[in-house]
Design a protein that fits this description.
148 residues; five-stranded antiparallel β-sheet; four-stranded antiparallel β-sheet; 35% strand
């Protein structure tokens, strides 16, 4: 009888741990989802150092980049304009972005217009320096991201 009680208690404990772990992982998953503030694709920079939001207007051949914090909520002004290294059927092309909201030599919004940006989807990388460190960020045009 005592063994049976230990067995039942052990099974109950395992069930509670399993359910608690599942609830915790669902909560963490929800915490780690980021929504793009401007409707663009969110690109993670480093290990949550920052995010780039890529808004692509393929008809106009225009890209707008927003530099955001690790939670993709607040603007992060940077000194150097990001560069787009675009791969296309016509070859590779580097496109410089221009700051839109510069203040004291820092900006968090950048734009570029070029015929190479009429591709859909874009392929290539964005070179960006944040806090004196250079990152090469792969272009992926999904609208939001999580860390599943």
């Amino acid at each position: 009888m005592v063994r049976k009680n230990y067995f039942v208690l052990a099974m109950l404990a395992m069930a509670v741990i399993s359910l608690t772990g599942r609830a915790y992982s669902e909560e963490k998953k929800h915490e780690h989802e980021h929504k793009s503030p401007h409707g663009g694709a969110l690109l993670e920079v480093g290990a949550e150092v920052a995010h780039l939001e890529l808004v692509h207007d393929e008809k106009a051949g225009k890209v707008t980049l927003y530099v955001l914090d690790g939670e993709a909520k607040n603007a992060v002004p940077i000194k150097d304009a990001p560069k787009l290294n675009i791969k296309s059927k016509d070859g590779n092309k580097q496109i410089e972005t221009k700051s839109v909201d510069a203040k004291d030599g820092m900006a968090s919004k950048f734009e570029a217009t070029d015929d190479a940006l009429k591709a859909d989807p874009l392929q290539g990388r964005i070179v960006v320096s944040i806090k004196d460190k250079k990152y090469n960020v792969d272009i992926k045009e999904d609208r939001d991201h999580d860390h599943k």
